[in-house]
Amino acid sequence: MKVRQEKKPAISIVINTLNRGPSLHATIESFQWLRYQGDFEVIVVNGPSTDNSEEVIARWKGRVRAARCPAANLSVSRNIGICLARGEIVAFIDDDAIPEPEWLEQLAAAYEDPQVGAAGGFVFDHTGYDFQAQYCVIDRFGHGDSSVRTPMPHLSYPKSLRFPHLLGANSSFKTSALLEIGGFDEEFEYFLDETDVCARIVDAGYLIAQLPNAYVHHKFAPSNIRGVNRVPRHRYPIIKNKIYFILKHAREFYPPEVLLREQSTFIEYQRTEMASAFEAGLVSAEDVATFNRDVERAVETGLRRGLEGPKPDAMIDGAKRSAWSGEFMPFPPLPDADQCTLVLISKGYPPDHSHGIATFSRDLAEAYAARGNIVHVIAQSPDINRVDFENGVWVHRIVPKKHLHLPESAEIGLPQDIWNWSASAHAETARIATHRTVDVVEAPIWDCEGAAFLFDRRWPLITSLHTTHHFWLDSHPERRQDPEWMASYSTPLLKAERLLMENSDGVRANSRAIRTEIEKAYGFRFDDTKVQVIPHGLKPAKIVETATDDAATVVLFVGRLEARKGIDVLLAAIPRVLEEVPSLVFRIIGDKSQLSPSGKTYAEDFLASESGRKFAAQVRFEGHVDATTLSSAYASCDVFVAPSRFESFGLVFLEAMRAAKPVIGCSAGGMPEVVEDGVCGLLVPPGNTKELAEAILRLVRSESLRQQFGQAGHERFREHFSVARMAAQSAALYKTARNIRLTQQNER
Predict the structure, then answer these.
(1) What is the mean pLDDT of the chain?
(2) Is 227 exposed, middle or buried (0-12, 13-18, 19+ CB in 10 A)?
(3) What residue stretches are annotated with the Glycosyltransferase subfamily 4-like N-terminal domain (predicted)?
(4) Please, what sign has the CA dihedral across residues 284, 290, 295, 301?
(5) Hey, what CATH topology would domain 11-322 get?
């Protein structure tokens, strides 16, 4: 018999924003990944903003409802949102906060108890790793106690001296309960505004549900109230509202002398805090002078308003609500195409890293998230643990810790630094899994980043093939000749690589060549049911401003300056080319620290040679550059060349083809699967200086051929190497791996 599911309550998400256009867009964008079985709408109350907030809201026209607030008063803005709300529940989130996907589902579950009038969850601070708020109770003076470690529903009763508290950045209320108590008291322009509502919700006989989940990440954008250091600069409202709150909620419980003592203590605390902030350089002398002028006014106003009580026009009434019209507008989340939560391990990740695996990981993560899936990337942090939501992807940057070896890793002698990173990434995945089901994990073969996942077997594991340690050794023969290095580092790494490739639940090969070469080098055959060839994909190129020199034809190289990338072959070919066409310019971009057999760098060798001295002005070694400079280099070059001796794929060729540039590579590895020889570029035998020089000369001498190859390459990129295609093929790989793991579990 089919169980009938109860319809989930409709929810109105309200964002109250003021001059935070960029963070506002990120907040709205994050709602596309909310997983809620009911309907929800998004209401943005803006104002009085003077930045680009209106433009941001306009981008979401037809998906969000919007209104303008005439005053820089959060309670006024919140009341407008309540008036507009057509859902059974109103959920407030700050304009610099990001909810996790289960946020609404977990908030709504609290209201299954009809006595609940408000509910809220935990709030991560700006790191995304530590909590800003968990459980909290507050008293009638507005003193908060965050030391409690459990929810306090037993304190939810009328006139309770201490009651549960919800942070405004992550709070929800039954709409009918908000209307019953009159909404927010507009005397609170900010500070104690949600505390006042919590007090009145409790006094009206409702329960406040404090949830151990329903996570929100609060990124603390600066505002007109707080600077980038989060220190309040203008404290008039803080002092005024504190006095008003005490008189409103504590006067019936305590004698006047107690109220006055609380008031004086709070003012002295604010005075001391302001002085400390000035000494630390966090506020200016003008801020301190303003504070001293405002204290007396804040006390006078707070006392007067507290004795008068709330103004009738400062609360929601029927007339105010009827002034705000509109129908419920369901927000369209992304379809959960694959119903998959992916954890992608990538030690390096942009913008801190721009090498091949880092770029591949970013493009895969963002493309797979764009299908509506939940994607986490675990990357290495140079300083602190932090979690950010970037282009639809949860990026966890963590500091590796030292971990004890598992018996399996100890048996093969896996190097400690390799194990530390893999085990740290595994621990972070386990942390994610405490509140979300992890469906599949993918890690690169490089540095055996998936080793801890293979030995633990908790989640299906995909290993993506890139350059392996075996092929790295081919470019570093001196290491092969070092017995101590081989025994302590290389041999264990080679064993771990083979274990990963043979025993993972799925294997991603970016080319047929990499599969063939690995099987030949490691002496085994992949399981055909587990391995899939999925070419890398790239996003369309961004349009960049380029400074062109019409007098010079530019040949571009991008890559590490090492033998495997064929830099020695290119530098040997360049003099031959320049003797024929002296007007050429060669731009050589990439890490130039790798030493040549001479003990110097390849750049130093070339510049010290006779050819280097002769052509120094035309051969420019630019080293590592930022992403903008690199994009501009691709856009402004005339020919791209990368004569690698081996590439498992060759992402740099895609980057050039994406910019409609003719390319020159080698007939080795995965390069022939990317570059169609004679159609979008030229392929030469690896290590052949003469043929490389001839290929460069052929292209630099023919503008028409360059245009023909460039256009053909761009079309090939669009047809075969899009990120959408890569993501769709990845979905099939993940599904296969999950099914394989499920079958294995059922057979046990």
Answers:
(1) 93
(2) middle
(3) 356-539
(4) negative
(5) Spore Coat Polysaccharide Biosynthesis Protein SpsA; Chain A (3.90.550)
pLDDT at 223: 43
Residue 587 carries which DSSP code? E
Residue predicted with more confidence, 417 or 742: 417
Q: Where are the beta strands (DSSP E) in 88-149?
A: 89-94, 97-99, 116-120, 123-124, 131-133, 137-139, 144-145
Fold designation for 554-721: Rossmann fold (3.40.50)
> Taking the domain 341-533, which CATH number applies?
3.40.50.2000
Cα 415 to Cα 281: distance, rounded to the nearest angstrom = 46
Per-residue model confidence (pLDDT) at position 230: 57
Domains 341-533 and 554-721 share a fold: yes
Q: What does the DSSP 8-state code read for residue 396? A: E
What is the residue type of 420?
A: N
The answer to whether 656 and 554 are in contact (CB under 8 A) is no
291-341 pLDDT per residue, tens: 999 999 999 999 999 999 888 878 888 888 888 889 999 999 999 888 999
pLDDT band at residue 353, thresholds of 50, 70 and 90?
confident
**Section 512-517 average pLDDT:** 92
Residue 552 is given by DSSP the state -
User: pLDDT (tens digit, 9 = 90+) per residue, 219-277?
Assistant: 866 544 444 445 787 899 999 999 999 999 999 999 999 999 999 999 999 999 999 99
Pick the closest to residue 624 from 655, 586, 591 (CA basis). Answer: 591
Is the model's pLDDT at 209 over the cut of 80? yes
* Phi and psi angles of residue 276, each rounded to the nearest 5 degrees, phi first: -65, -40
Residue 97 contacts residue 17 (beta carbons within 8 Å) = no
CB 506 within 8 A of CB 484: no
pLDDT above 90 coverage of the chain, percent: 83
Please name which of 290, 332, 242, 302 lies closest in space to residue 62, comparing C-alpha atoms: 332
Give domain limits for the chain: 11-322, 341-533, 554-721
Judge whether 83 and 316 are in contact, CB under 8 Å.
Answer: yes
Tokens of 509: 């090969």
DSSP 351-391: TT--SHHHHHHHHHHHHHHHTT-EEEEEEE-SS--EEEEET
Q: What residues pair up with 124 in beta bridges, in sequence order? A: 131, 217
pLDDT of 199 reads: 98
The amino acid occupying position 615 is F
Tokens of 349: 């990740």
C-alpha 422/C-alpha 747 separation (Å) is: 28
Task: Evaluate the CA torsion angle 519, 444, 538, 664 in order and state its sign.
Answer: negative
Paired sense of beta strands 341-345 and 461-464, if any:
unpaired
Query: Binning pLDDT at 50, 70 and 90, where does residue 570 land?
Result: very high
Answer for the pair 539, 514: CB distance below 8 angstroms, yes or no: no
| Integer angstrom CA distances of residue 43 from 7, 57, 90, 221, 360 | 22, 10, 10, 20, 36
pLDDT in tens, 52-75: 999 999 999 999 999 999 999 999
Phi, psi of 537 (to 5 degrees): -125, 155
Q: What is the rounded CA–CA span in Å between residue 544 and residue 709? A: 21
Which is it for strands 123-124 and 131-133: parallel, antiparallel or unpaired? antiparallel
Q: How far apart are the C-alpha atoms of 276 and 280, rounded to whole Å? A: 6
Residue whose token pair is 């104690």: 192
Count of other CB atoms within 10 angstroms of residue 344: 26
Binning pLDDT at 50, 70 and 90, where does residue 729 land?
A: very high
